[in-house]
């Protein structure tokens, strides 16, 4: 029954084979050809079965046939000769047993042929090795590989036969292996040549694409042999030494190392040799990677089979190599500008149209699907380091800028003027240029960093302005110790005042340019603080300049309302000339501050004039003196009015009111009818309600004709009177003190 089952299986298999052979009509013509081929196969199988059943003990000798070749140059000919002779007798005996079976006899005669070849032949594997070596050296890699494959095929078949007959016979295996030892070196030498071509593939593909194609064909052949050998291993357990070679995998490893080396090798400079080393390094990387990928896409892709997916593999290698390099750079102790260069490149340049987003790389390269080169965590660490470095840098820069500016303040040459003729120093320009540069740099990275840098700049500006205010105050104090020094004190103080206006305008401009409207509120309080500080600096500067004026006016002011003055002193003329002279310099003060300055100068001149009256340095003796004095006062008020009208020209400032006070006082002094004195004084008080009793008492003393009782009556009656001040009137008398010595006497 077992035989029947076997027969049935054999028939079924045969039917399947025949059906497989006759799939198409044209195959019917080949039926006779198929039949003869199958008959030959059957005869061959039957002969093999006979040999195996009758001469199993001698089959070991078959493997020894090829071992004959292995020994021709190893000095083992005597052993092989003995073995061959043994084999002859063994096979000869078997041949008789098999009644001269033709297969065994042919093997027998083949052994005789080998025997004579051994004695007289010139067969040599090393000769083929030498030929192959020559082909490799001449760069004829395909032919060299063909010979190498033939050699390997012989060795592998010999080893396989040996393995099949006696897998434990390591001695004979080693004999074959030793004989073909040079072939292994040959394989390594060929591989070395292949890897050299692969390493230079992006250059080779432009100069000699055929060479690259040959290399790829060799690798493909080896891949096929690897697969075949691995399949045989699964079936038989045998695999030749050195298999699988995995040359395709090695090729990709070589490419990967080449890409990494190419990226790392672009750093030509160090920080010590070139401050721009990183910018240069990153630009070279950008250029190389873009060039390489364009070559890979347009040329390299055509030299490889589609399943190698060479462009995408290379793209991935470049991305990985870049990622590794960027992480290495990020881990270095970078300076602030270097951090910016790195982050700008990583976050923007890499995916821009200058690199991975280049039009000719699409659609293969999709920038949106590229992973980040460095993690967000590393980006955050770099940004944090950048902000802390930038903070200390800005503090240092601002301090240095102020120190440099202070050195200018003591120069013996006037400061520069801007295009409108206003004095200035370079401080605001230097500070805001520095801010601008850092903001432009931050804007390259992202919006968020730009806002942070702006907040930092303005925050540091706030602290800086406080120092600026303190330095301006110290400058004034030093000058007061010796008014001859510095020589250009007035001009540099004007420049400081003007700088305040420039700072204000620059802050507004900076915010408008770099701050989003929705962020305005976050800065409003600090902006208000800065404006307030700048106003204080300017106001104190203006005040110190006016102090300068009035220190020069002091001797002339002291002449007012004295006998000398009454006799015809030119004190007011000198005062006007001095003020005008100073205001020639003050014309270099920017408008908002110059206007304030003119008003304040006008006010102070009038205050000092009225103070001179209240000092009671003169008491008119008679109506004639009173008239002369009063007319002189009216004339001098007119001089002041003319002067300040001229100084305020174009500012639209009303300068009339202040000089009117001098004239109103003059009218009280000029009055000839004492009975009308109360009325005149009450008119004065109603206009200027901040006049105090001591002011009226002093005024009446200067007039010189009012008795103590009259003074008392007028003062007491005035207290009950109504006041009708001008709504624009700014109190002036409250600033003026009257010497108190005579007041108690008056009020007794």
From TrEMBL:
Q: Which GO terms describe its cellular component?
A: exocyst; Golgi apparatus; growth cone; membrane; midbody; perinuclear region of cytoplasm
Predominant subcellular localization, coarse grouping:
other
Entries under Pfam families matching the protein: Sec6 (PF06046)
| Alphabetic keyword roster | Acetylation, Cell projection, Cytoplasm, Exocytosis, Golgi apparatus, Membrane, Protein transport, Transmembrane, Transmembrane helix, Transport
> Where does it live in the cell?
Cell projection, Growth cone; Cytoplasm, Perinuclear region; Golgi apparatus; Midbody
State which residue ranges cross the membrane. 87-120
Q: Which InterPro entries match?
A: EXOC3/Sec6, EXOC3/Sec6_C
Under the GO molecular function aspect, what terms does this record hold? SNARE binding
Top-level taxon: Eukaryota
Q: Which GO terms describe its biological process?
A: exocyst localization; exocytosis; protein transport
Is Acetylation one of the keywords UniProt gives this record? yes
Relate the assembly described in the record. Answer: The exocyst complex is composed of EXOC1, EXOC2, EXOC3, EXOC4, EXOC5, EXOC6, EXOC7 and EXOC8. Interacts with EXOC3L1. Interacts with BIRC6/bruce. Interacts with MYRIP. Interacts with SLC6A9.
Q: Which family does it belong to?
A: Belongs to the SEC6 family.
Functional note: Component of the exocyst complex involved in the docking of exocytic vesicles with fusion sites on the plasma membrane.
Name of the protein described by the UniProt record: Exocyst complex component 3
Question: Source species, please?
Answer: Trogon melanurus
